[in-house]
Amino acid sequence: MRKTQLLFATVLCFGACGTTNQPSGQEAATADSDEYKFVEDTSRWIVLIQGETDSIGKLDADGNFVPDKRWFQLKKGQPLSSVPPRTLINGFPHKGVYEFRSRRLVPGDLDDSGNFIPTVGGRIIDFKDYHYSPKAPKIYNLPGKFVKNEKKEGQK
After folding, report:
1. Could you tell me which residues come within 8 angstroms of residue 16 by beta carbon, excluding any fewer than 6 positions away?
2. I need a labelling partner for 47 at 20 to 30 A (CA). Which of 59, 111, 127, 143 fits?
3. Cα-flanking dihedrals φ and ψ of residue 26, to 5°?
4. pTM (2 decimals)?
5. 110-121 burial by CB neighbour count: b if 16+ within 10 A, else e?
């Protein structure tokens, strides 16, 4: 089981899934009642825990972690300088999350070590079929964010 997790983490880390010709997240996702819209953002810095190391990098449009060579596999707690503001995406155990994989959402959990464990027999859905709300299951490696739509004049 551990070898499978390591292989899965390696695929996530090095983006072996490649790119697809599917529409961008902005075109693909529709939010519940059109209250929220997805805004792709592959420019934000994130931290990914990998065993006893942390790596800093970015998520590509398919949800793959792309480490920056300056901050790859750093020893936990290592002092850092000149590191941009960043978000830790897998630092806490969390039940009932999705992993974003090339415009598909895989259900599972984040364990105590930050590993994503897919739910055996879980239903994989297309991202376009995900309906965001603040109470919806979290997508831990989402390459962007959902923002509330601005109401147009005359709308309730």
Report:
1. 10, 64
2. 127
3. -65, -35
4. 0.73
5. beeebbbbbeee
Rounded Cα–Cα distance for residues 46 and 89 (Å):
7
Amino acid, single-letter form, for residue 120:
V
**Residue 104 tokens, joined:** 């598909």
For all residues of the chain together, what is the average pLDDT?
81
- What is the rounded average pLDDT of the residues 44-49? 95
Domain boundaries, the chain: 2-17+24-76+83-148
d(CA 145, CA 138): 11
Given a contact cutoff of 8 angstroms between Cβ atoms, the answer to whether 2 and 114 are in contact is: no
Q: 77-119 pLDDT, tens per residue?
A: 788 888 899 999 999 999 999 999 999 999 999 999 899 999 9
